[in-house]
Amino acid sequence: MYVGGPCALIWSGVNLIERLFPGWIYKDPQGPLWEFNRRTGLVTVFRSPKKQRDAGEIEWQSPFSEFDGYVHSGPTHQGLPLYYGVMVHRFKEQALRLTDFQAASANDEDHKALWNFWLQYMDSTAPLPDIPLFELHRNMDPVTAEHDRRTGRNPRYWPDMDEGTCKQKTDEMYKKCLKAFG
User: Per-residue pLDDT averaged across 147-166, rounded?
Assistant: First the structure.
């Protein structure tokens, strides 16, 4: 009673505030942070959405082909290596940390796989990466739609797949990424 009572009281108060004043807790985003445009081949970084007057204005824009992917490392509080991905422009002092897409981790292979994903996604001459995220959008991309028609790919390839096959396919993709960048 001495522990549960105050906890229930605090939970009730926060729940009441959340229901009566949701705007205090949940804020609408002020604008995008970045954009990877497959059609134009451009990477766009927007001004900080934390500053409302600047939100949505373009800070810089460069072709994706001028970027190189790197895996940087830094120490954790215990001194162990912590890896994170970065896109660095070859000719200008522009860089984009990829921690918004994938958190820093103790495994550098995941960041190499993410860079491989961006390489495949931004190559407009090749089909979209064959992942569940793009299943609904594959028919909207002309190159991907033509590839799927030519190869006879099932439009419900990922949704109709059982769990075991899905795990096998994702493991194969992961190993393919490691082989390319290992």
Answer: 92
What is the C-alpha radius of gyration for the chain, rounded to an integer number of angstroms?
22
Please report, as a single letter, which amino acid is at residue 55.
A
Site of tokens 């991309």: 141
pTM of the full structure: 0.74
For 74, the domain range is: 31-108
- Residue 48 domain flag: yes
Round to whole Å and give the CA distance between 127 and 32: 26
Helix (H, G, I), strand (E, B) or coil at 23: helix
Identify whether 118 is part of a domain: no
Q: Are 45 and 59 in contact (CB under 8 A)?
A: yes
Distance CA 155, CA 147 (A): 12
- Rounded Cα distance, 3 and 159, in Å: 46
Q: Is 37 helix (H, G, I), strand (E, B) or coil?
A: strand
